[in-house]
Structure to design on (420 residues):
DNA sequence: GCCCGAAGTGAGATGCTCTTACATATGTAA
DNA sequence: TTACATATGTAAGAGCATCTCACTTCGGGC
């Protein structure tokens, strides 16, 4: 850290005294720590260490520890919504397959990033005043809602659509959590998520059994 | 802490130098802190302060911070299972009402103790080697499993019973989490948990729609 | 009555959060 | 080019938490 200022860059894109991309790299470091050591297994200091900066640097980009977490969650919700939309777009509008694909994207996200997934839904305590996160949550729900509406041929604000969309969400959400928690004695040989979600979608959006 | 040894007892059952019931009181203090300030809003030091002992005292009863959390979770799971069993016992064996009552107990627990509830299902990271917790989880699932089996008139290890019990659990679990997270745009005017769970139980344990 | 183990104390090593004062880089304008 | 404003970094440190260690105090069994 004396003669050659370009040498010390720790395998990152650090140009010199200024980092250039610290904010994004901190988020990525925290995301990785959360996946590796659980939702609380990260520290601002460790993230800074990984980015190759002093432990005070992160506070130039984030107010405090919770704000970094919120940024990680926000970025995670963006990816979750994008995945759900990709699932929906891969099938004809209004098809049961589209609804099931949204659910599958949800479950796959939970399995791929259990730490972030848990964080997304466990960050409520102390983060009530985060309107952007709440809005992103609504956006995710909106994907389900409009797919269900298209499937039933009803407007998204129809009470019956809302009821069934909530049931779908609730089902998929529970299955996702149980899958990553492994607290369930899963039916013999595990579960075929695709077939499972297709069956659930059919049952909930089909004839009025509820 | 000098002249009158009996004076300093901080509204607890402290007899003198020895506390008498520190372990239980620490668990209770942590439980309260978790409910008030979220799953991570507690510290061993604060719990010790509340119990009126030095910050080193807790380590005579628990190896480390995670072990206290595990004790809180363990105690919480005991109460959850007890509540589920009470729900089941309040209705005829094999009735749909019994199954719905188990689900209602589950949701009610989540609403009453969201912090502990979240902890119970979020403690997997780093606590894999806690066979007692896993076993208590199995016990809870067992309540659902045998109620479903009785309802269907089949043995609890029947694959169909397992599939439907898992569906029930998944549904109730998702609903519980969504309720305490309020991440859902709940159907107008909220949800009548009792009716909702009864409908779900009927749909899942009824004729083979899945 | 004595001794031993269980349960508590105070001090301290280490690490994390976040603040403050200061240093360095970058862009814009004179 | 120089000069300044702003953004982004550093070093040092206050304050709190976890956990350890050596020591003290209590209660029960012999």
């Amino acid at each position: 850290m004396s003669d050659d200022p370009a040498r010390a860059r720790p395998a990152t894109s650090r140009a010199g005294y200024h980092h250039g991309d610290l904010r994004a790299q901190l988020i990525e470091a925290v995301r990785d720590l959360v996946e590796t050591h659980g939702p609380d297994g990260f520290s601002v200091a460790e993230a800074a260490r990984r980015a190759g900066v002093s432990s005070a640097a992160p506070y130039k980009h984030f107010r405090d520890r919770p704000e970094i977490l919120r940024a990680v969650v926000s970025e995670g919700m963006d990816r979750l919504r994008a995945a759900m939309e990709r699932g929906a777009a891969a099938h004809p509008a209004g098809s049961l397959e589209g609804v099931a694909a949204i659910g599958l994207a949800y479950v796959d996200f939970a399995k791929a990033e259990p730490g972030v997934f848990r964080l997304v839904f466990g960050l409520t305590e102390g983060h009530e005043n985060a309107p952007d996160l709440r809005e992103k949550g609504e956006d995710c729900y909106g994907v389900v809602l409009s797919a269900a509406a298209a499937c039933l041929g009803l407007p998204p604000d129809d009470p019956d659509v809302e009821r069934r969309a909530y049931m779908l969400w609730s089902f998929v959400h529970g299955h996702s959590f149980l899958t990553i928690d492994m607290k369930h004695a899963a039916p013999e040989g595990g579960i075929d998520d695709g077939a499972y979600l297709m069956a659930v979608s059919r049952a909930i959006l089909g004839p009025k059994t509820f």
